[in-house]
C-alpha cells in the first residue's frame, strides 16, 4: 500500500537514552525506526556498530530499518542482520558490485534497500530494482543530521517512481524532511519519510508528546 510511513532517525535522539527514545517515538506514532550507520570513510562521521544495533533491537516493536553508509559494505551485512535489522540498505556508490550486495542482503532473509547519493542518477539502480524492496533517495549529502534539503532530488523521486512502475518497491527519502518538504516528496511518489531533527526538535525523553506533535506535523 502507498500510505506514508514516518521513520524517525535516532541519529537525532539523546545518545545516553536510546532505549527510552526508541520506545517514545514508537508510542508517539513512528512507523519505523531508522538507524544510521556511518564508518568515517564512506561518510565523514562515525556512529553505530553491530553491538549497538543489538542493544536497540529489544526496544523496537515496529520495524528497524538500518541505513549502512559504509564502504566496503558486503563484509558487514551478516553482522547487521544478526544484530536484528528488519531491512538493510546499502549505497549503490559503496562499491563496484551493488547487485552482489543486494543478493547478499536477500540471502540473510532481511528486506533489501539500495540508496542513492544526491549526485547519483536513477539509472544507477535501474537494473537493481528486481532485487530491491526499497530505494532510498538521499536529499542531503549523507553524514549528518540537520542539513538543508536539496530540491533537485524531487524530480529524481518522480523519475524513480516511473522506473519502478507497479512493482511493490518503497521509495524512502532521507535528509531535510520537514512539514514543507514532506509534502513535496510525497507528491513526487515517496512513501517512507525519514526525519531526524524534525521529529526530535524541542522534545526530550521526558516529554514524548513533543515527538508526537512533530510526527503528526510531518
Ligand atoms: C544523514 C542520515 C539521515 C539524517 C537525517 O546522513 O542518513 O538519516 O539523520 O537527519 P535530518 O532529518 O535532520 O536531515
Ligand atoms: Zn539515514
TrEMBL record:
Q: Which UniProt keywords apply?
A: Carbohydrate metabolism, Isomerase, Metal-binding
**Where does the record place a coiled coil?**
none
Enumerate the active-site residues: 36 (proton acceptor), 174 (proton donor)
Give the cofactor note.
Answer: Binds 1 divalent metal cation per subunit.
> Which EC class heads this enzyme's classification?
isomerase
Q: Where is the signal peptide?
A: none
| NCBIfam families the record matches | PRK05581.1-4, rpe
**Pathway, per UniProt?**
Carbohydrate degradation
Q: What is this protein called?
A: Ribulose-phosphate 3-epimerase
The record's catalysed reaction(s) read: D-ribulose 5-phosphate = D-xylulose 5-phosphate
Q: Which cofactor does it need?
A: Fe(2+); Co(2+); Mn(2+); Zn(2+)
What is the organism of origin for this protein?
Paracoccus sediminis
Q: Which family does it belong to?
A: Belongs to the ribulose-phosphate 3-epimerase family.
Q: What does this protein do?
A: Catalyzes the reversible epimerization of D-ribulose 5-phosphate to D-xylulose 5-phosphate.
The residues that the entry says bind substrate are 9, 67, 143-146, 174-176, 196-197
In the record, what terms sit under GO molecular function?
Answer: D-ribulose-phosphate 3-epimerase activity
PANTHER family annotated for this entry? RIBULOSE-5-PHOSPHATE-3-EPIMERASE
Binding positions (a divalent metal cation)? 34, 36, 67, 174
Gene3D superfamilies xrefs: Aldolase class I
